[in-house]
Amino acid sequence: MILSVAVLVSHLAGAPPLSSYQPEPAELLRARQLMLSRPNECVALTNHFLQRQEADPVQMISSRQDFDHLEQARRYRTREQTFAAWQLQALCQANEGLLLPADVSINQAIALARRHSQHDILAASLLIKAKLALAGQRPEQAAALLEQAADGLPADTRLQGDLQLLQAFTQLHLHRFDQARQGFEQIRLQALQQGDGPRQAWANFLLGEYYQLLQQDELALSHFVETLNLLGQRRQYYLKAMAAEKAAAIYAALGQGDRAVHYANQATTEFELLGNSPLLIGSLINLGRVTRAGNDANLALVYFFNALDLVKIQGDSALMARLYLEIGQSYLQLGNFGEARHYLDLARGGFEHGGDLARQTDALLQLGRLHLELGEPGLALLQLERALGLAQQRDDVPRLIESHRLLARLFETSGNPIQALSHQKAFHAYFERASKLNRLLTQSLVQDNELQLQQERELTELARHGEQLQQDRQRFALLATSLSLLTPLLIYGLLRNLLRSRRLQRQNEELQRTLLLESRTGLPNWRQLMLRLPQEMAKRQQRSEQWYLNEEQARPFNDKIYYLLLHVPFMTDLSERVGLGQAAAIQQRLGDYLRGRIHPKARLYDLREGQFIYVISQRQVAELQQTLAGLERMFAEFPCEFELDRRLAIGIIGHPFLPKAPHALDDLRLGDILYLAMAAAHQLSERTGEPAWVELLAVDCQQAAFFNGDIRHCCIQAILKGLVKVNSSHNKQHIDWHALAPAPAVPD
Question: Is the pLDDT of residue 436 over 70?
C-alpha cells in the first residue's frame, strides 16, 4: 500500500455542507473535528446521531411549524444530515482501519443519494468509496467508481479537483506512471495558478511518491521537502507529518543521520499536534530508530519510553512487545546488559504469545548478542540455535544469515574452529542466495567483498583468539572471587537502605493522613474538602450537561449535591469558656459522636471557627427539611456536662447552582453564595433565638450572565428580583439582604 488508509481518506473533509436553512448538528460538527485525531469517538458520535428519527421534509419547511422548528431540529435528523452522517462514519471507520464497516456505511449514503436523486451527494460518496477501494488495493474498482462520479459531477464544483487528484493517484496504483505524472503536474500547475496551497502540496507529495516508486530518491526527497515548505504554518498536520516521515526515511538511507533525525522529529511533532495516538506511536518508534542509528541510544530510549506510555494506555500487546525489543536493543548498544536482558525477555515472551515468529527470531538474535557480549557462550548458543530453528522453519533468509554470522562468531571466540567454519560457510551460502534474490539483506549486512575478506582473515586468527579467551577467563575468575567477598557487604547495605526507605514511606503516608484531618475533632478538614471538591463538581457538571444535551428539561435536574454550611455557636468560644483541656476533650468527643451519627453516604468537614460543611447527594435526601431536622437533633443530643449554645445557623445550596450552565460558577464563587446563605440563617437565628436555616435556589430560567461581577452582590440582586428563590425555616421577609451586601471601600 503506497499510503496509509488515513492519508487516503483525510484529503476529502467529508460530506458537502448542509442546506443553509438549518445549522449542522453539534454531534456532526464534533465528529468532523475528531475524524483524524480520534476516529473511534467520531464513529460513536455518528452512530448516536443516526439513532434519531428522520424528519418529514414537508413538516420541516411548513410555515405552520415555525414555532416547533428548533425542537424538531434537536430531536430529528433531516435527509441532508443523514447523508453527511453516513459519509462521516465511513471516513472515521476507515481512519480506524475498519475498511469493511466503512464500505457498508458509504454504501448506505450511496443508496440514499440514488433513491432521492441527490447527484452532488452521490458524487461525493462515490469519491469516498473510490478511496476505500484504493486503500484495499483494488485500483480497478476505484477507477470504475471515479468514472461514475465524473458523469454526474458539475465542472465548477469543488469536488472536481478532488476527482482529478484521485484519478491521477489511481493511475499510479495501476502502474501507469506517465499518465500519473502528467496528472499530478497538471493539478499542481492549476493549484499554483488558483493560489490553492493545500491542493498544490498534495499534488507535490504524490509526485514524491511517484519518484520514490521509480527509486529516484533524490527527486522524491526534493518533492517531500517542497511539500513541507508549501504548507508552512498551515494546520495540515497529517500531510506535513507524512512528508517529513518520508524525507527522514530517505535521508537515513543516504546515511545523513542529522537530517534524518531533524525530519523524523518534525514528523513526530506534527502527529502530536494531530492528536492521533496510534500514528504518534509509530512516529516515535521511527524517530527512536533514526536517533539510535546516529549513535544516540540514550535519546532514543526517551522516545521509545514515551511511545511505550501511549501503548500501555491502548493495551496493544503486540505493539508493546515491539517496543520492548527496540528498548532492549538500545540498552544493548549502551552496554547496560541488565536492562537489555529484561526488555528482550519481555519482547520474546510477547512475540511468542502473539505467534509473531519473525520478531521472536529478532529477539532471540539480540539475546544471543547480549550473552556474547557478557561472555556467556552457553546461553548465547541456546538463544542463537533457537533463532536459527525459527528462521529455518520460515526459510527467512535475512535472519538465517544473521543467525549463522553470530554462531560463527560464537564458536570462533569459544575456541571451536570447526563449528565456526561450518557456520561461516552457511553464512556465505545464504549471502549468495540473498544476492541472487535482489538485495534481501540490509545495508549493515551487505559489505560485498570487503566483508568476505574480513571474515576470511578472522578464520585464520581463531587460535590467537582462543589464547586471548583463556586469559580473559582467568581474569574473570579473579574478579568473581573479589566480588564474592564484597557481596555480603553489598547485601547488608541494600537491606539497610530498603528498611529505612520503607520506614520513611510509612511515616510519609501517616503524615499525609494527618494533614487531611482536623486535629481537634478528627474529622476531615478543608484540605480534604479541596482535594475532593473539583472531581465532585466536575462529575455533577458532566451529568448536568448530559441532562441538558439530552433535552430532558421537561423534568427538573434531580442529581444535585447539597452543600450545607453549619455554624455551631458553642464551638467558637469553647476554649475561653471551659479551658483548653476540657475544650479539647469535648471537641474530640464531638468528632467521634458526629462520625457515628451522619448519613452513611454523607460527608462532614470541620472548617474550624465553629463551621462545618455537610455534603450529601440529592438522591440520598427524601426531604431536605428532614435532613435539616436530623442535623439539628444530632447537635442537640450531643451529651456534655457543660451548658452549650446549640442554635445552629445553616446555609444551603445545591451544585450545580445553574443546571443549564454548570461551568458558569467555580468553587470560590459557589462558596461565596454558600456563606451568604449561612449569614442570612445566622441573622434569623439571632433575631428569633432559635436554630435557623436558609436555602438559596436559582430558578430554572436563570441565565449565567446575571452572575458576572461580584458574586455576593449579584446574588443579592438576584434574590431581590426573584431570580434566586429563598427557602427558610422562618419568615424569609425578616432577612435584611442589604445588610449582608459587601460594603464599598472607603477612599483615603
Answer: no
Domain range enclosing 713 = 526-740
Q: Are residues 591 and 659 in the same domain?
A: yes
CB 149 within 8 A of CB 130: yes
The verdict on 88 and 126 lying in the same domain is: yes
| Alpha helices (runs of H) in 295-447, residue ranges in sequence order | 297-314, 317-334, 337-354, 357-374, 377-394, 397-413, 417-436
Cell of residue 327, nine digits: 528498548
Domain C-terminal end among 461, 492, 516: 516
Q: Are 135 and 94 in contact (CB under 8 A)?
A: yes
Residue where the block lists cell 514524491 = 208
Q: Which residue has the cell 540473498?
A: 434
Longest pairwise C-alpha distance within the chain: 110
Q: Is the pLDDT reported for residue 551 higher than 70?
A: no
Task: Give the separation between CA 291 and CA 300, rounded to whole angstroms.
Answer: 5
Cα–Cα nearest to 183, from 202, 165, 157: 165
685 and 539 fall within a common domain: yes
3-state secondary structure labels for all residues of 629-669: HHHHHHHHCCCCCCCCCCCCEEEEEEECCCCCCCCCCCHHH
Burial class (CB in 10 A: 0-12, 13-18, 19+), 684: buried
Window from 152-156, 184-188, 332-336, 437-441 with minimum mean pLDDT: 437-441
Backbone angles phi, psi at 517, to 5 degrees: -120, 145
Query: Quick one: DSSP state of residue 254?
Result: T
Q: Are 281 and 267 in contact (CB under 8 A)?
A: no
> How many folded domains does the chain comprise?
3
* 396 three-state secondary structure: coil
List the one residue out of 422, 413, 457, 451 whose CA is nearest residue 435. 451
Residue holding cell 430554572? 700
Q: 37-60: per-residue pLDDT in tens? A: 778 888 888 888 887 777 655 555
Measured CA to CA, the distance from residue 651 to residue 656 in angstroms comes to 16
d(C-alpha 540, C-alpha 245), whole Å: 44
Angle 99-115/119-135 helices, nearest 10 degrees? 160
d(Cα 340, Cα 297) in Å, to the nearest integer? 12
Do 8 and 89 fall within a single domain? yes
Question: Does position 106 have pLDDT exceeding 80, yes or no?
Answer: yes
Closest to 700 measured CA to CA, from 666, 654, 668: 654
SS3 612: strand
Q: Which residues does residue 624 pair with via DSSP β-bridges, in sequence order?
A: none
Alpha carbons 580 and 600: distance in angstroms, whole number: 32
CATH number of the domain enclosing 603? 3.30.70.270
| Mean pLDDT value across residues 125-137 | 84
- What's the Cα-to-Cα distance from 270 to each of 229, 230, 251, 280, 417, rounded to whole Å? 14, 15, 19, 9, 53
Assess whether 98 and 148 both reside in one domain: yes
Q: Is the pLDDT of residue 373 over 80?
A: yes
Query: How far is it, in rounded angstroms, from Cα 167 to Cα 172?
Result: 9
- Dist CA 654 CA 674 (whole Å): 9
In the listed set 130, 154, 178, which residue is the last one of a domain according to the structure?
A: 154
Name the pLDDT band for 549 (thresholds 50, 70, 90). Answer: low
The three cell numbers of residue 99 are: 475498511
Distance CA 349, CA 623 (A): 60
